[in-house]
Design a protein that fits this description.
Elongation Factor Tu (Ef-tu), domain 3, 4 helices, alpha+beta, OB fold (Dihydrolipoamide Acetyltransferase, E2P), 277 residues
Length: 277
Amino acid sequence: MAGQESERTDRQGAQPANAANDLDEIADASSLDRVVSTTTAGSWLALVAIVAALVAAVIWSFVAVVPQQITDVGIVDARSDARQVVSPVEGVVQFTTTDGTAVNQGSPIARVTTYEGKLVPVTAPIAGTVSGIAALDGSSVSRGTALMIVSVGPQEGIGSAATLVSADRAALYSGNPSLLVSFTDLATGITYSVPARVTSISNTPTTLGEQPSAAVRRLFETSSASASDQVLYQVSLQLLNLQTVPTGSRTVGGQVLSITNTYARPHPFELLFSDSP
């Protein structure tokens, strides 16, 4: 009997302890739910953002570039857009166009039949207007004989331009840089941009006596006044894709241009560890 009483007493004493443990487990489960709920609502989003930033940083380290650019003032050079057409061979010339005719670049404008009977076509070097036909149809011509002139008019837009810069800036136009030329149609106030390529860089300093046109002469005088202590070199450009500009807004002789020269696209690390200033 005494043993039974003792066992009963032990069980009764253990019940409160077990109940307390159960309550602790329930409380711990509720706390865990609160922790999980808090984590998924805020911290997980922050973690995703951090991971995304790290991935973006890794991608940037492989593909990022920092364009190195300079901007210079240029001018449309009308005189250089008149091209003389000459006979490519010796023979008899026949013209397929007349003075005042508008032609496209590459259009046939004459043909020369050699004395051996070979027919050699002559095509327009640029889009423009034919003038100054210098030989009679059916006459004999030698190789290099002047046949006519093709001049660019306002409808086509003048594609030749020039800028005058110091020697160190002229060097940045070598090596096939990426050029973007901008100009404004004063009638509408709209600014257009077209790509361009370098056609020549002067190896000697420019002087007034060497200027090809009045437009470049004005640019020389303006540039000299703003950089009187520097020797200037001429960089000649060819404007591209002028056909994308509305007809009435295309470039005309003497028009001022803004030339953006992207001469390099180094990686940021190259700039960081470069020895150049």
